[in-house]
Design goal:
39% of the residues are buried. This protein has 3 helices and 30 strands. The radius of gyration is 27 Å and the shape is globular. The protein has helices at residues 3-42, 44-51, 410-414; strands at 65-73, 76-83, 88-92, 104-106, 109-113, 117-121, 126-130, 139-146, 149-156, 159-166, 173-180, 186-189, 192-197, 200-204, 222-226, 229-233, 243-250, 257-262, 273-278, 281-286, 289-294, 310-312, 314-318, 322-324, 330-333, 343-345, 348-359, 367-379, 385-391, 401-408. With 416 residues, the protein is mainly β. Strand 26 (343-345) and strand 27 (348-359) form a beta hairpin. Helix 1 (3-42) crosses helix 2 (44-51). The strands form 7 sheets. Strands 24, 25, 26, 27, 28 and 29 form a 6-stranded antiparallel sheet that branches. It has a 5-stranded mixed sheet with strand order 15-16-17-18-22, with no helix packed on it. The protein has a 4-stranded antiparallel sheet with strand order 3-2-1-30.
């Protein structure tokens, strides 16, 4: 081979190597741009953790978590588990419908879902159960603990369905049944679920064929159970001192006793939420307050004649405003009662508070930046508010974040 030919080959190889080097540098440059953009979006401290936040899988277990959250940030939904130290573990999990997927927590595990599946999350992993029947346009309406499992009631334009998750044994199973257009109010009661009917209190199981229980159109908008009694609250009417209907059923049978719950002033919010019984009082949430009345005795109105006894509702806790964290930061309570984003467990109400700042975005679009997130509780008996957990190991996006559901470990809550 001539000297000139050898020189030409060398120049070709050098040029080829230079082209390859430029291609590699260009590729890494693109990666760097993406990384920097994600760093600006989520914060450098959480970028690495966010990049590792996978879709939910069978290896995702509760482990040492004590709080479960459903979050949404810019079109992506997450399930987040938080331990007592404040460290979060997140997975991507699509919401069911436009209202938001609920969470329930019991000795059987953590229950939640996505558009086409139910998930039963245990300590070391989860069971994924396919939802039978149509799933288009379906949303969660109620999710309740039921003995060895959970019951999930969904709704859509095509009607209502009941999904029963049985967690007994080494695995889990799901049974679904159509319940037509019936929308009864429901309550966990001991090891089962009940509804109020025209004939009294009836159990709700996978074998139930008639779901014609009382609900919104019967002025029963919230239901709570305590031992041998079931309490049904009606809608809150207009007026300067509105009086709300309260019905009390004995589970053994008979017509309900009726009472009138009187508020001290007019409320804009017309529906009570999250009722529960604790230490001789009935509690519920409405318009950013925790309300209560003493449990009535057995002398209520029951026959359609006579005067209905009046029970005066009092504010037992404030569910609005700000919580002071370290003396410098103020966290605003973000879990609103109308959205059902409060968990009532063992005489305490748990919610979420956030420290957020509005960012004009500079040259880009404006957004709300999450600077901190805390789990707080309110003692139903005293009204005391306190911060339970400061979430400092955040591994989910911090821009335009919305909390859509919360549940807490009942065993952990009992020790608070």
């Amino acid at each position: 081979m001539s000297r000139s030919r050898r020189g030409s080959d060398a120049r070709d190889r050098a040029a080829s190597g230079s082209t390859e080097a430029r291609r590699v540098l260009k590729a890494w440059g693109a990666v760097l741009i993406v990384v920097l953009a994600l760093g600006a979006l989520f914060g450098v401290g959480s970028l690495a953790r966010y990049l590792q936040a996978p879709p939910i899988s069978e290896s995702f277990g509760a482990e040492d978590a004590v709080v479960a959250l459903r979050l949404e940030a810019r079109g992506t939904s997450y399930l987040v588990l938080v331990n007592e130290a404040g460290t979060a573990r997140s997975v991507q999990l699509a919401e069911r419908g436009f209202i938001g997927t609920q969470i329930a927590w019991s000795d059987a595990g953590i229950s939640t879902g996505d558009p086409t599946h139910e998930y039963l999350i245990g300590e070391n992993g989860l069971v994924k159960l396919a939802v039978p029947g149509p799933t288009e346009g379906v949303h969660d309406r109620a999710r309740l603990a039921s003995g060895p499992g959970f019951a999930v009631f969904t709704g859509s334009a095509d009607g209502q369905r009941a999904l029963f998750v049985d967690a007994a044994g080494p695995g889990a199973s799901l049974t679904g049944t159509d319940i037509g257009r019936e929308i009864p109010e429901l309550a966990s009661c001991g090891d089962g679920i009940v509804m109020a009917t025209a004939n009294g209190i009836a159990p709700v199981t996978p074998r139930t064929s008639d779901f014609a229980g009382l609900g919104l159109f019967d002025d029963v908008v919230a239901l709570a159970c305590d031992a041998d009694r079931v309490y049904g609250l009606g809608a809150i009417p207009d007026g300067p001192e509105p009086r709300e209907r309260l019905r009390v059923w004995d589970r053994s049978g008979g017509a309900p006793l009726e009472f009138s719950v009187r508020y001290p002033g007019e409320l804009i919010e017309k529906s009570p939420h999250s009722p529960f019984v604790h230490d001789g009082r009935l509690y519920w949430t409405a318009e950013w307050n925790l309300w209560s009345v003493a449990l009535p005795d057995g002398t209520g109105h029951s026959s359609g004649t006579g005067e209905i006894p009046v029970l005066d509702a009092v504010v037992s806790g404030d569910l609005a405003g700000f919580l002071e964290s370290d003396g410098a930061s103020e966290y605003e309570i973000a879990a609103g009662t109308p959205e059902g984003m409060l968990a009532a467990v063992e005489g305490r109400v748990f919610g979420v508070a956030t420290d957020e700042e509005f960012d004009g975005g500079g040259r880009g679009p404006s957004f709300t930046r999450l600077d901190g997130l805390e789990i707080f509780s309110v003692d139903a008996a005293t009204g005391e508010r306190r911060i339970e957990i400061e979430v400092d190991g955040i591994d989910f996006p911090r821009r335009d974040l919305h909390v859509t559901a919360i549940a807490v470990d009942p065993e952990w809550a009992a020790g608070r």
